Amino acid sequence: MEEADFRRILDRLPRSTAPVILSGIGEPLMNPQFFAFVDILAERKTGCQFYTNGTLLSPRVQKAILARSNVFSVSISCDGAQPTTFENARVGADFGGWKRSVQGFVTQARKQRGRALRVGMNVVVSTQNLAEIGDILRLAAQLGFDNVSVMHPIPVDGVAAGLCPSPEALAAVNEQALLPLGNDLGLEVTCWFRRDGLPPSAFPRCLQPWEYVFIRANGDVAPCCALFGSDRGAVMGNILEREFAEIWHGPRFQEFRRTSAFGTNPLCRVCPYY
Fold first, then answer.
1. pTM value?
2. What digits encode the pLDDT tens for the residues 146-155?
3. Count of other CB atoms within 10 angstroms of residue 103
4. What is the 3-state secondary structure (H, E, C) of 76-108?
5. Which of 22, 194, 201, 263 sees the fewest Cβ atoms within 10 Å?
């Protein structure tokens, strides 16, 4: 996406100072226009956050992030506590180099921005790292993080489904085990784990379809981050072709919200946020 395209999408949205998440499919720091997008948001007095795998946190990139006060949150993904596990999940990555870069960034972020910039670790539990979750929390503490988000994988496609541990294996990774460990390590641990059964009638556990939209570079509007890269059926409309209000209040979005609220939306049923 070019700067002009980004501005065009922003111009189609209602004027707001609500923060923007500059992440979707893939690594956002690979986009050569990334910091231009951050600066465009700053022009509009809009804050932003993003998710990164941390492999591109060079000194130059770290400096660029820390110099932009409208970046208020950076979440760094970690796929393993051992070099083999980590490098198998991130082909071409160097675990030792990643640790040095991430630790340096966390240290500088604290020194320069204090609590104005929230830097957290994000962990998706998979068949590859299931046995290392405790060690990943210990690694987070070692690297200087103070918060970690742990979640089950979302099987939105065949690749993701293949990485999902069995329900029996996932049962061993639970809040009762992780929260005390996090507390001992001085970490704030947030768990997003899939729940069995249906939620109470008309009691949505996830408010994303009511509070957010996720927009692809081509203008497609999705109802939540978990479905951002999944089935085309999750597209509510295209903001470059229709007015935002028409999409937001349209029948497709309304039906998605209704089935989400009542627990009958098949796309929501596989999501740990629900």
1. 0.87
2. 899 998 877 6
3. 14
4. EECCCCCHHHHHHHCCCCCHHHHHHHHHHHHHH
5. 201
